[in-house]
Design goal:
Helix content: over 70%
Structural class: mainly alpha
Radius of gyration: 19 Å
Largest sheet: none
Number of helices: 9
Distance between the termini: 44 Å
Shape: globular
Length: 153
C-alpha cells in the first residue's frame, strides 16, 4: 500500500538525511559544501513520510516484543555466545562494525534491503532482482560461516 499510495519504501537514505539535518544545525557551512548531503537531505527536515516510517521500525519492534512478553535486555544472544563467547563488549563492537558496513554498502549500492526487495522487486526492477538473489546467497553463506556448527550438539 505504501509503495502504491505514497512512494517506494527506503530506509538507508534516512540516516543520511538525519546526518544532513544534524550537520546543518551544527556546521551549516560544512553541510552546504557536501553535494551528497545536500542532495539526500534537500529540505533539511525530518518531517517526512520516510522518516516516520523508519522511526516506526524500532517503536513497532519494541511494542511487539513487549506485547508478546519477549522483550529482553540481553546483550549477547545464545547463538553468539556459543560461537564467539559471552563477552558483551565484543558483541557490541562487532555489531557496530557490521551495522556500519551494512549501511555503507546500502548507500554505495543505491539502496537497502527494504528499498530493493520491497519496492524494487514489486516494480520488477532488474537491479533489485539481482540484489535480492545476491543478498540471500550471501546471507546463507555468512550464516553458515558464522554459525556452521550451531545446532550440531
Amino acid at each position: 500500500m505504501a509503495v502504491a499510495l505514497v512512494q517506494p519504501i527506503g530506509v538507508s537514505t534516512q540516516y543520511v538525511v538525519l546526518d544532513g539535518v544534524l550537520l546543518h544545525q551544527v556546521l551549516p557551512d560544512v553541510a552546504d559544501q557536501s553535494a551528497y548531503l545536500s542532495e539526500a537531505a534537500g529540505g533539511w527536515t525530518l518531517a517526512t513520510y520516510e522518516f516516520f516510517f523508519v522511526l516506526g521500525i524500532p517503536i513497532g519492534a519494541f511494542l511487539a516484543a513487549w506485547a508478546t512478553k519477549r522483550f529482553s535486555t540481553r546483550l549477547v544472544p545464545g547463538e553468539w555466545a556459543h560461537r564467539f563467547g559471552p563477552i558483551p563488549g565484543r558483541r557490541l563492537v562487532w555489531s557496530c562494525i557490521g551495522g556500519f558496513l551494512l549501511l555503507f554498502g546500502a548507500r554505495f549500492g543505491g539502496g537497502c534491503t527494504s528499498g530493493h526487495i520491497i519496492s524494487g522487486v514489486s516494480q520488477l526492477a532488474v537491479s533489485s532482482l539481482i540484489f535480492s538473489a545476491v543478498l540471500f546467497v550471501s546471507a546463507i553463506l555468512t550464516a553458515r560461516w558464522l554459525y556452521g556448527d550451531w545446532g550440531k550438539q
